[in-house]
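Quick one: structure for this chain?
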Amino acid sequence: MCPVLDETAISAAFAQPDNDGTFAGAYGEYLHSLGARRPAIIFAFPPKAAGTFLRSAAIEAVNGQLVRIVHAQGGRDAQPYLPILLSYYLGGLSESTLVTHVHMQALPANRRFLEAFDLRPVIMLRPIADMLASYWDMLESDQAARQDGLNCTIPEGFLEFSRERKANYLIDIFGPWYAGYFATWLEYAREQPDRVCVLNYGEFLRDPTETLSVALQHAGVPRSQDACRRAIEAVWNERGLHRFNRGTQGRGSSYFSWRHIDHLARMLDHYGIPASEFTYLLKTSSKPA
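Got it. Here's what it folds into:
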């Protein structure tokens, strides 16, 4: 299906925003009007926070269409690609609701892009060490994952690293991205609480149906509890296909030492993250050996 691109749409596709990503004036008004035409569900989760699982459940619940809204992942965190959104809002991608899962920080240009279309993203809080433990497992078991880092490249010899060196690598290289992710999104959520929906991984494990319901309500495509429950059940039966690893809280304590956790704490401390969120992001089930 090809979108009908009028002169305004074509001009908008080539429009360059301000330095901070703001689309000002007539183009900004045009993009905002497009965003009002139909909803879109944006899971802007960090890696290993059940994003693939929940976006699959959302697709099931709303009969949606998975869309990659970035030009190319290419080993970096996501930045939305304007022509994809133009095509979607003009009917060129699918008649179904767009559902996407992007590892995206809430940096200024990304915030202004979301605001241009009045998009309302959903994020997930999960202890960083637990996510890095899951990422570690993925790197060891999935060759494709080792080809696509997160603002980094994975060393060819990663599998031969000692356990201590692997732990250091995950903390030193991936830890700063996770710290920046939470710093930018939590700040954005404090500034615009109606725009950013903040989910909690522990609550997701206790009641995934309610978590999905909250996300869909926030995105403007509410579904009944029964519809959300059926969607969760359908995806749960195929969770291995959706990179749902173990879903265990506190597992980072068996991968990382207190020295590693202290390093993460220093990263987060630079950003002045509120105490309750700061504590949760560093939470482990027991003291590591």
